[in-house]
Design a protein that fits this description.
By secondary structure, the chain is of the alpha/beta class. It contains twelve helices and 14 strands. It has two domains: 210 residues, inorganic pyrophosphatase (n-terminal core), CATH 3.90.1640; 124 residues, Diaminopimelate Epimerase, Chain A, domain 1. Strand 4, helix 4 and strand 5 form a beta-alpha-beta unit. The chain is globular, with a radius of gyration of 20 Å. The N and C termini lie far apart (42 Å).
C-alpha cells in the first residue's frame, strides 16, 4: 500500500469513528506533543470526541500548543476524567499513536495489547524505525525530519485546512526535531512544509524561542560531556564523541530511560554535532541500557554518505543519517576508547 493511500485510509478511519484516543511516547518532546495536538485539532474538525494522553508530560514546555492543557499526563487522572473503567475498548473506537515506534514508550503496553486483541483499531504515525509492530494501520516514514512533517503530508493528502493553530503544531514539531532546521534531516520537502505553516500564520518567533530554550539541564550536561570528549580524525575527517553507561547513570541519576528514549536523546546530540566545521561526518557512540554499544552517524553539510559505514558495522539507515548497534562495552585505554566484547 502506498503512503498516499495509507494517509487517505487513516482519514477515512477517523471519519468513521466516534471517540478517538490520541497518544504519544512518555516524557514527550516537542514533536510528540505537536503531533498529538495536531491530530486532536484534525479530529475535532471532523466533529469527533477526543481524549489525549502523554505519560509524564512537562506541564510548561510547549504550553502554547492548542489543547495542550487537555493532554493528560497521569493515567489515573485520565481514567477518572474520561470515565475509563475496565478496557479502552469500552471508551474508544480508534487509537492514534504518534511518534512512538516502541509500544513500551506509550506507558500503556497492557492496555493497548488488550485493546488490539479485542479488535480495536489503531493507527500509528511515526518517523522512527519500527521497534514493535502493533498498529492495524502503520504510517511510518523514517526518511522524514519529524512525525509532525508526516502529519503535514497527511493534511495535504486529505485537503485539510491548515489553520494557524494547526500550523503552530506542525512548525513546532519540525523545528524541535531538526534543531531549528540546522540538522541534515531538514530536506527540501521539510522547508516546503515550514513555508506552508508560515503562510498559514504560524507564530515563528514565539516557537523558535521555545525550541531554543527547551533543553533539560541533564541533557545539557550530557551534551557538555560529549563536547569535552570530542575528537577529530584528521586523516578521515571524522569527528567522534563517546558517552559511557556510567556517564549516563551519573548524570541522569534515578531517571531510568528505556532504549528508545535514550536513542531519542542522543539522536538530537548527533544532529547538533553534524554542524561541526572541518569534518565530513560525525560518529556519536554510547552504551545503552541493554548492554549494547550504539552509534549515530551523521554527514555534515559537505560530507560523505554514512549509510555504507553503518551497514559495515551491522546497522543501516539513510545516506546522511544512519546508525549501528552491537553488544559490548566501551573502555578507555591509553587515552583512546576501545570496544570490549
Amino acid at each position: 500500500m502506498s503512503m498516499q493511500v495509507k494517509l487517505i485510509e487513516a482519514y477515512q478511519m477517523m471519519r468513521l469513528s466516534k471517540r478517538i484516543l490520541i497518544i504519544a511516547h512518555l516524557r514527550p518532546d516537542g514533536d510528540a506533543l505537536s503531533s498529538v495536538a495536531a491530530m486532536r485539532l484534525i479530529a475535532q474538525g471532523l466533529g469527533k470526541e477526543t481524549a489525549c494522553y502523554c505519560k509524564d508530560k512537562n506541564q510548561e514546555l510547549f504550553s502554547y500548543l492548542s489543547g495542550f492543557a487537555e493532554i493528560e499526563a497521569d493515567w489515573n487522572n485520565f481514567k477518572l476524567t474520561q470515565k475509563v473503567k475496565e478496557s479502552l475498548m469500552d471508551s474508544f473506537d480508534l487509537i492514534i499513536v504518534n511518534d512512538c515506534g516502541s509500544l513500551a514508550r506509550t506507558g500503556l503496553v497492557a492496555e493497548i495489547k488488550e485493546y488490539k486483541n479485542k479488535g480495536g483499531k489503531i493507527i500509528e504515525f511515526d518517523h522512527h524505525p519500527r521497534i514493535d509492530e502493533y498498529a492495524g494501520l502503520e504510517i511510518r516514514y523514517p526518511g522524514l525530519s519529524s512525525t509532525s512533517e508526516l502529519i503535514y503530508r497527511f493534511i495535504i493528502a486529505n485537503k485539510i485546512f491548515l489553520s494557524k493553530e494547526l500550523a503552530d503544531c506542525i512548525l513546532t514539531g519540525i523545528l524541535t526535531d531538526t534543531g531549528n532546521l540546522l540538522y541534515p534531516s531538514a530536506s527540501e520537502a521539510t522547508l516546503k512544509a515550514v513555508a506552508a505553516t508560515l503562510t498559514a500564520g504560524a507564530h515563528y518567533s514565539k516557537i523558535v524561542n521555545y525550541t531554543l530554550k527547551n533543553k533539560d539541564i541533564n541533557v545539557v550536561k550530557m551534551w557538555g560531556l560529549a563536547l569535552e570528549r570530542l575528537k577529530i580524525n584528521q586523516r578521515y575527517q571524522v569527528a567522534t564523541a563517546v558517552i559511557t553507561r556510567q556517564d549516563i547513570n551519573n548524570i541522569l541519576g534515578g531517571e531510568h530511560l528505556d532504549s528508545a528514549a535514550e536513542s531519542d536523546l542522543f539522536s538530537g546530540l548527533a544532529g547538533f554535532l553534524s554542524n561541526l566545521a572541518g569534518v565530513k561526518a560525525i560518529a556519536f557512540i554510547y552504551e545503552d541500557v541493554n548492554g549494547f554499544i550504539k552509534g549515530s552517524l551523521r554527514s555534515t553539510s559537505n560530507g560523505f554518505m554514512v549509510d555504507k559505514l553503518a551497514r559495515t558495522l551491522g546497522g543501516g539507515g539513510h545516506e546522511r543519517a544512519s546508525g549501528f548497534s552491537f553488544t559490548g562495552r566501551l573502555e578507555k585505554i591509553n587515552n583512546n576508547w576501545q570496544v570490549i566484547k
